[in-house]
Amino acid sequence: MLTINLEDKNYNKPLNKKLKTSIVTAFEKYGLLKFTNVKDDFIKFVNQFTYNYANDARRRKERMNDKNIRNVDGGKKKIYLHSEASFSPSQPEIVWFYCIRPPETDSGHTLYCDGIKLWEKIPAKFKLFFLENPILYKLKIPIFLPQKKKNLKRKWYLETPGVKNCILDYNDHTLNFDFFKFALERSRMQNKYCFANHLFIPLSSEPQILERTFLNNKNIPDTDFKVLIDLANKNTKHIKWEKNELVMIDNLRYMHGRTSINRKESKRDIVVVQSMKSNFGYGSTNPKI
Length: 289
Description:
17% of the residues lie in helices and 35% in strands.
């Protein structure tokens, strides 16, 4: 993670070409940047790197009078490592977290794990399994429909490779489909892959996922899965938040999560923004590592 101080930089206006290029180059190299001394109109900065925004989970409340700024997931339990919405065709390219108020207690740290480094450490027999076997997600996604139509279900399609058995259900305003997705993502680096997916997070915390299996009912033995979890934990780091910090995460490279929050904690206030697509080319600076 690289830290950049934005104090005295007028990011409310278009960034000069040199500064923006240097930020993009650093982002493509490190995959995770922390900006300090960011004002609460940080969305103006985020806009300068975003082509379009993701339709964030409807369970999250809008913040700061902006539909693209949302609360992070509520509750105080630990959130396990995951790549945001990596179980669906709506996986954002960049996830941003902004700290309005840091926690008073030593808890609620944001976790992050570099999928490139994790993939490099995964034993060869596991790599072979993930290269050969896509994950099958059975999904029930809430969507907005103008009105309910009784007993009406319609075949639908999403123009995304890997989507199958898509049904639009007017009864409960949901889109139901199967989605095949590999556990790997191509990185911004040449010939590098990232282990960034939704395998570690319990399904109880993702009501949109009805089932999560592998194609042809292949399985990872529990002992092997524990090896993967241990490797991920050994390669996981913490962000201890300070006020007015903004973090920019490559969601196709990193998995993120959160440590549990102290039950007495009441001050922690973090918001999230999801850039569906960046406005700079994927791997455009082609950094070498």
